[in-house]
C-alpha cells in the first residue's frame, strides 16, 4: 500500500483525518506507566512511550491502555513496525526524551503518534528482521557506549550506555516516590567492571518494566544498561550511573539478537573477558547486604 513518512506527517497532519500507513523502527522504549486512580473507572490505565524513526527522522509514539499488555513486550528496541489507522496529536510537553545514539538524526518534537484500541482502532504489524529491505531506508539502532576509564570526564546528567562484568549486586531496596506517599521505587546497587580502570561502574538500577531481568542480576553475568544518566555526588566527586525512564537492562540469556551486539565497545569488552581467568574474577565478587551510598565521611569533623 502507499506509505507516508514522519517528515511528511509533520507537515500535513493538521489538514488530514486519515493517514497512510507508516513503516518505522523502534530506537528507544520507555518503562510502562500506570496512571490509574481510584475515582476513575478504567480497565487498563497503562501508557508507554517509544521513539520511532524512518529515513526522514525520529518521532514519539504512544501505546495506550489495553494495547500495552498486548504489545509492550513484543515491541523491542530495533523492532520494525507497520502502522495503519493511527492518530496524530500534539506532543505532551512534559515527557522525558532519550538521548539519540545518532546526534545527526532530525527530531520531530511537535507531534506524536497515538496507538489506540478505538477512535481509530490501530492496526499494528511487526515485520521480522529477515524481511526488512535496505531500500526502505530505516535507520539502524545506534548506541553511546562508554568505558569506565571515560566516565570520570563526563558531565553531570550525561546520557550513556555501559557494559560490564557484575562483581557486586545488592539487595532490592525501596524509596518513597514522594514524602508521605504510599508509592515506592524499587532499586538495587550493582558494580560492574570492564577492564579499562581499577574502579567499577557504580550502578543504581531502578526496577524498569523488566522484572524478569531485574530479579536475576547476579555476579559474573555480562550486564548491559542503556540510556543511563551520569550522577556526580558532591563534595566527594563520586560518580555513579542511574537508570532513566528509557533505560533497558540485559543480562546473560537476554543478549542474543539485541542490536548492541554489533557495537565496537561491546566487542572490545567480550575480547577482554575472554582473556580473563573466571576463577580469579569469582574471588572478587560479592552479593547482597546493605550498601550505604554515597559513603559517609570517615570522621564526624568532615561530616
Describe what this molecule looks like in 3D.
This protein is mainly beta. It folds into 2 domains: 6-136, OB fold (Dihydrolipoamide Acetyltransferase, E2P) (Beta Barrel); 148-300, Nucleic acid-binding proteins (OB fold (Dihydrolipoamide Acetyltransferase, E2P)). The protein contains 6 helices and 15 strands. Strands 1, 2, 3, 4, 5, 6, 7 and 8 form an 8-stranded mixed β-sheet that branches.
Q: Per CATH, what is the topology of the largest domain? A: OB fold (Dihydrolipoamide Acetyltransferase, E2P)
Question: Roughly how many Å apart are the termini?
Answer: 68 Å
Number of individual domains? 2
What structural class do helix, strand and pairing data support? mainly beta
Low-pLDDT stretches are: none
Helical amount: 10-25%
Please provide the count of β strands: 15
**C-alpha geometry:** globular
What characterizes the major β-sheet?
Answer: 8 strands, mixed
CATH homologous superfamily grouping of the largest domain: Nucleic acid-binding proteins
Instruction: Tell me, rounded to a whole number, the average pLDDT.
Output: 93
CATH architecture term of the largest domain: Beta Barrel
Write down the secondary-structure element order: HEEEEHEEEEHEEEEHEEHHE
Calculate Rg over CA atoms: 21 Å
The CATH C-level name of the largest domain is: Mainly Beta
Proportion of beta-strand residues:
35-45%
Number of helices: 6
